[in-house]
Amino acid sequence: MTLAPPIAPPPAVPADFKRAWLLAPGVIWMLLFLLLPMSMMVYVSFWTQTTFTIEPVLTLDSWRAFFATPTYVGALWTTIGLWAIVLLGCLLLGYPVALYIGLFVRNKGVQTMLLVLCVIPFWTSFLIRVLAWRPMLGSEGAINLILMQLGIIGEPLQILLFSPLSVVIGMVQIYVVFMVGPVAFMLSRIEPSLLEAARDLGAGSWKIFRAIVWPLSMPGVVVGAIFVTIMVLGEFATSSALSGRKLSMLGNIIVTQVGSLKWAFAAVAGVILTAITALVVALLLRLVNLREEL
């Protein structure tokens, strides 16, 4: 009786090959839906734009026209200014709310319920949330009526609607929840024993906040700031609805140019907007090493 020869085991698949296959879907997605569209946008920004047509002849005319037009340069600075004010407003308004939810409410169920309450406005349409501010801020709106009945003002405040203030109010209300969530998450990870030890050593409330709470919440602040930055810099609907088209952001420039079939000019504005967003996000990421903190 002869024994069958032993069957050789299949060759082992290299670990690098397995990792490459796992990364392939993500890499393909990023190539198709991020790098390729962005490369195309940069390429089109150098095309020759005529009144109603565009030709793939490379030129800098659209770039020169953008920076030579005060309206478009003004829209660029308006976008940056609004972003800074809205980001600061979201931080000042959202941080105390996150501080209460993450640090003072230790019951996880109650924390979850409070965070759900914060996102209830998102159950409605984005446009409804924006347009709902019109009856609130108008000359005959709720805020003016309340202030007049309290005797604080004698006549309606016209600055509340169709002004930069109304745009800031609308954007802060819409985007503040994106600051609350990440900050509350980081604050909820702080051990109560750490705060008690600080109090036992004689530290006051302000010193505990400055030395412990704020540094440990910085990753959440940075993540929230990234969310708010990306959405505010790309805004166009809120500024149109609440400023009465008196305030123009880069997003409004892109919408207008696309509607006029001026693709090259819209691509220029899109490239500038993308570059600003990438620069701000890169600067924010330098504040905290999220890979180690999260």
Structural description of this entry:
The protein has 294 residues and is an all-alpha fold. It has 15 helices and 2 strands. The chain has a two-stranded antiparallel ribbon. Helix content is 71%, strand content 1%. The mean pLDDT is 90. The N and C termini lie far apart (65 Å). It has helices spanning 15-44, 61-68, 70-104, 108-118, 126-131, 133-137, 142-149, 164-175, 177-187, 192-200, 205-233, 237-243, 250-259, 263-287, 290-293; strands at residues 48-49, 54-55. The radius of gyration is 26 Å and the shape is flat.
Low-confidence stretches: none
Instruction: Please give the count of helices.
Output: 15
* Form type: flat
Structural class: mainly alpha
User: Mean pLDDT, nearest integer?
Assistant: 90
Q: Fraction of residues in helices?
A: over 70%
Largest sheet: 2 strands, antiparallel
Spatial sequence of strands, sheet with the most strands: 1-2
Our measurement of the CA-to-CA distance between the termini, rounded to an integer number of angstroms, reads: 65 Å
Which percent range describes the beta-strand content?
A: under 5%
Task: Report the order of strands and helices.
Answer: HEEHHHHHHHHHHHHHH
Q: What is the alpha-carbon Rg in Å?
A: 26 Å
Number of strands: 2
Record the SSE blueprint.
Layout: H1 15-44, E1 48-49, E2 54-55, H2 61-68, H3 70-104, H4 108-118, H5 126-131, H6 133-137, H7 142-149, H8 164-175, H9 177-187, H10 192-200, H11 205-233, H12 237-243, H13 250-259, H14 263-287, H15 290-293
Antiparallel strand pairs: 1-2
Helix pairs in contact: 1-14, 2-14, 3-8, 3-9, 3-11, 8-12, 9-11, 11-14, 13-14
